[in-house]
Design brief:
The protein is mainly β.
């Protein structure tokens, strides 16, 4: 007769929802367990034999830190119990032994269905939002003159972003509520993301006195993100593991925004560009084990850019620039497919850009420093940009640029040597 031993190991995450339910994966099948409500399943061993098993959760008030999971072999009615710690991760494995073979092991494990989804849930639309605000060089150099009073302009940009970030929230079990996200006092787990962000702007401006431009614009955006976890050793899931960690989830986000703007250039070379924008975001997140979540966010943004153009000669000029951007970002509370609740997020985001632009005929180069303020100075990025502004033919005006931005300092993560960077391509054509 086979003897069944159940041992506990720290390996994968156990989930508790508000109604005290668990998700359990046995090979490629997922079962949901409820308190004192047993479910049955077939458990196959490596030697080809199998047992009919049942499992149920037992909640005891005598132990505040643990629940009990009870297994019963339906062939011999033998019961075995194990402890499930409320706040930690476990793996259950069933080990079989007989007189001929020893230690034939097949893993039976419980998995937190938010575990793979965490890298997506703990991210937000911040990078997508910040990338939507463009400077005047990328936004306003493609214009179609409708008549003597109005101009039409448009711009398309695509950005590849690679970023490492800390999970500033963690899942905690809260009595009578289940699992919820709370602020992390000492975050140390690193998450990674790779995003492709696309933005399309169209706007119309009224030409005022002294060639001032005042108008409104629409912006549409799409972000596709691959989410990764580091320090993730669960090989049973057979997930792709590469230099970024384990690829666990995907996110698709869309945005829509409307804004107003005013641009004024003076004869002495000084200019300013101001805008205000309202945006809304929808994110759909799905992990590779089939868990999902949706979020809705809003943002109010303002930007003020100014600079002065110095003409060295008829072909060459230098323009120092400064741009200050402010975002108020609001993400509404949401729950994932396991009823784990993410609270409201309200963020004040400040970005400062200091640039030096050099223009020779129709080609320009720009070096920029970006300062990102989050309570204190959080990150410093350096960006190099190369662009072309001019006419290809008499009736076609082209404005395009490519830029590389690299994070050089992060006050929270500087010891981790993060390799955060983005590549952006701006395209615009007017006729």
């Amino acid at each position: 007769m086979k003897r069944i031993l159940i041992s506990l190991m720290l390996f994968s995450t156990v989930v508790f929802s508000k109604e005290l339910s668990f998700k359990m994966r046995v090979r490629d099948k997922i079962y949901k367990l409820y308190e004192n409500n047993p479910i049955e399943f077939d458990y196959k061993y490596q030697d080809g034999t199998s047992d009919r098993m049942s499992a149920k959760i037992i909640n005891t008030e005598l132990d505040k830190d643990y629940y009990i999971i009870e297994f019963e072999n339906k062939k011999n009615n033998k019961k075995t119990q194990g402890k499930l710690k409320k706040q930690n991760t476990i793996t259950l494995r069933i080990v079989t032994k007989d007189n001929v073979k020893k230690g034939e092991i097949m893993y039976f494990y419980k998995e937190n269905n938010s575990f793979q989804l965490l890298s997506a849930i703990l991210d937000d639309n911040r990078d997508f939002l910040v990338s939507s605000i463009k400077n005047v060089d990328n936004r306003k150099n493609n214009v179609l003159k409708l008549n003597d009073d109005y101009l039409f302009w448009g711009n398309y940009s695509i950005t590849y972003l690679k970023k490492d970030f800390l999970g500033l929230r963690k899942i905690m079990f809260i009595k009578n509520k289940g699992l919820e996200f709370v602020k992390h006092d000492k975050p140390n787990r690193i998450y990674k993301k790779q995003s492709v962000m696309q933005h399309f702007n169209i706007g119309i401006d009224k030409i005022g006195k002294n060639n001032s431009l005042t108008g409104a614009y629409l912006i549409f955006g799409l972000e596709n993100t691959k989410n990764f976890r580091t320090n993730y050793c669960n090989k049973n899931l057979e997930l792709k593991n590469d230099e970024n960690g384990v690829y666990t989830a995907d996110t698709v986000a869309t945005m829509f925004g409307i804004g107003v703007n005013r641009t004024q250039k003076f004869s002495n070379g000084i200019y300013y560009d101001a805008l205000a924008q309202i945006s809304t975001f929808n994110r759909k997140m799905r992990s590779h084990d089939g868990q999902y979540a949706k979020s809705r966010s809003y943002a109010v943004s303002t930007s003020l850019e100014t600079g002065v153009k110095f003409d060295v000669n008829s072909n060459f000029s230098i323009t120092p620039q400064v741009q200050q951007v402010y975002h108020y970002y609001m993400q509404k509370s949401f729950v994932d497919s396991n009823d784990t609740e993410m609270p409201n997020i309200n963020q004040n985001i400040f970005n400062t850009r200091l640039s030096l632009k050099a223009t020779y005929k129709n080609i320009y180069g720009k070096v920029s420093t970006y300062l990102d303020y989050d309570k204190a100075l959080n990150t410093v990025d350096i960006e190099g940009e190369l662009g072309y502004i001019g006419k290809v033919k008499d009736c076609i005006n082209v404005n395009s640029s490519i830029s590389l931005k690299k994070e050089v300092y992060n006050i929270r993560n500087i010891k981790n040597n993060f390799d955060n960077y983005s590549i952006k391509l701006n395209l615009g054509v007017s006729y």
